[in-house]
Write a structure and sequence with these properties.
The structure holds 2 protein chains of 2 kinds. Chain A is built from 12 helices and 23 strands. By secondary structure, chain A is of the alpha/beta class. Classes of the chains: A alpha/beta, B mainly alpha.
């Protein structure tokens, strides 16, 4: 494979398999072949050039699971414009904040442009308040594609169901090996309507045998553990009926209960079921097919082809071509990736070299695979008139694993109105970061230095 | 019944305008599942993904009809 960027693979497919459908959208009513999609990309690129966009600029885009988003994404890549994909419901003021942050960095670079090695800047929540921009190279994107293709068996006749946000690694990284192999994507708005997931599977089951390969198309999908829980709780009988068409399911981003793993193995005995370790910073690192007869809880398997993992005092250290170039504002653009990343994840290896995740070092709250920084929530909450003090803690949730909960101390005489607090936070934060629960308290525990005593609340 | 459902969901979904006539549009996947779970538990009924339709989740009144239908089917 001589392609150095995913856009090169896309262009090659427009020549190699022009009539192969790349995207199914709107329950299959919209179909775009690779040739048609490539044509749209070129037209969009032309309009961007007319609009004054140039190589090395950065564009902030709200990410949606739609053909139009993917056209814009690849049009930017065709022109060498760096993509900054954002949550679709991010408040406008926050979009502008990100825009400013990115442009400040761009103006500091030679020629006031990002280097051609840069592909995207992904924003991710960390321990401290503001989300950090993760700068990812084209090399890292290609490495992710190769890792997934080899480890999970992507091929030309896969139809990958995209049911989650394309600004998150879970779904976005799967677009890469699909393009690399000339497979197809089925786009759906989300898992709000579980019926539409089964509609997608019905649609894929009815697709004709491929004229190129004489194989029956099969389905694959990434599902966070919360979505798997939803399917098992409300539709497990239906799921079993699609065992013949589901080639593989990948999960990750959060802990999956062992009982759910076992149940999935029973319902889908011949499907590959992967538990994967990945992050915006490290790319895709390890994956484990837990439908192997052993179904090992907490296991994420062996490192993928272009990834290396070791432990340093039980902390995961990642190396390989899929690593980020650095955080925005701290990037060495002369290298396509960092040499190593010391993560916040704790792990152990078994005697066969399989990795297990055993916990995290930092305070990030994992809400069904989406990371929430408590400090970010607290900063916004303290901006609300009437709130004297607060702390954002993790509260257990049967579906999501954890959800944020805000403990609030009100100013004397001020009414505690949780709906008003929630509405204010929603105007500043993505929906998944807004606490689901609120409680008024007399005081917040702090340590001798005045810092929030998070350990106290974690022990509750 | 309507007031009972309102109270049950008010705590669980602080961001959602439960009095909206376009309730389904206000919900995300977690919101839909929360409604299914809370109503199943509160009324001892079985709800599954086929019940989570835009029509059934259109408003509090439609939720009342859904619960009454499930209760009468027991």
């Amino acid at each position: 494979m001589s392609a150095k960027r995913i856009i090169d693979c896309l262009q090659a497919n427009a020549q190699r398999c022009p009539d192969k459908v790349f995207i199914y959208d709107c329950e299959g009513t919209l179909r775009l072949t690779y040739a048609e999609f490539w044509q749209q990309v070129q037209l969009r690129a032309a309009s961007l050039t007319e609009g004054g966009w140039r190589q090395g600029d950065a564009m902030c885009i709200r990410s949606t699971q739609s053909a139009s988003y993917l056209v814009l994404y690849f049009a930017c890549h065709l022109l060498g414009i760096i993509i900054v994909p954002l949550e679709h419901d991010l408040p406008e003021a926050r979009v502008q904040d990100v825009n400013v942050r990115v442009r400040v960095i761009q103006k500091q670079l030679p020629g006031h442009v990002f280097p051609s090695s840069v592909s995207d800047v992904l924003f991710t929540s960390g321990t401290t308040g503001q989300p950090k921009g993760v700068v990812v190279s084209h090399q890292a994107m290609m490495a992710d594609a190769v890792n997934l293709k080899v480890a999970q068996g992507f091929h030309h006749d896969i139809v990958f169901i995209i049911n989650g946000p394309l600004n998150h690694a879970g779904c976005w990284t799967k677009v890469l090996p699909v393009v690399m192999e000339g497979g197809s994507l089925y786009l759906m708005p989300g898992m709000k309507n579980l019926d539409s997931f089964f509609t997608a599977l019905d649609f894929i089951r009815r697709l004709p045998v491929s004229a190129d390969t004489h194989r029956q198309p099969t389905a694959a999908v990434f599902l966070v553990p919360a979505s798997i829980r939803m399917l098992l709780q409300f539709s497990q009988d239906r799921l079993a009926q699609y065992a013949d068409v589901i080639e593989f399911i990948e999960t990750g981003a959060a802990h999956i209960p062992h009982s759910d793993m076992l149940r999935l193995c029973e319902l889908l005995p011949d499907s590959r079921l992967f538990n994967t370790y990945a992050s915006s910073e490290t790319g895709v690192v390890c994956t484990y097919n837990f439908n192997d007869g052993k179904c090992l809880p907490g296991c994420v398997g062996h490192p993928m082809k272009l990834a290396r993992v070791s432990l340093r005092d039980d902390v995961l250290v990642c190396r390989g071509d899929a690593l980020m170039m650095g955080y925005l504002g701290q990037t060495d653009f002369s290298q396509p990736s960092l040499k190593e990343i010391v993560t916040s994840d704790l792990g152990r290896f078994d005697e066969e070299g399989r990795l297990y995740l055993v916990g995290r070092q930092n305070d990030v709250i994992n809400v069904g695979g989406l990371k929430v920084s408590p400090a970010e929530v607290e900063e916004e909450a303290l901006d609300i008139d009437g709130i004297a003090d607060c702390i954002c803690v993790a509260d257990s949730h049967s579906l999501m694993g954890s959800v944020p909960k805000l403990l609030v101390v009100m100013e004397p005489g001020v009414l505690f109105d949780k709906r008003a607090i929630a509405a204010h936070l929603r105007s500043a934060l993505e929906a998944y970061k807004v606490p689901a629960k609120y409680e008024q308290v007399d005081h917040i525990e702090r340590n001798a230095n005045g810092k929030l005593n998070r350990k106290f609340y974690a022990a509750q | 019944m309507k007031e009972k459902i309102y109270k049950i969901l008010e705590d669980a979904l602080p961001l959602v305008d439960l009095e909206s006539e376009r309730l389904y549009d206000e919900l995300d996947s977690l919101g839909v599942t929360t409604i299914l779970m809370e109503l199943s538990e509160a009324f001892g009924i079985e709800l599954d993904s086929r019940d989570a339709t835009p029509k059934n989740l259109q408003s509090l009144d439609s939720l009342v009809r859904l619960v009454e239908k499930k209760l009468s089917g027991k």
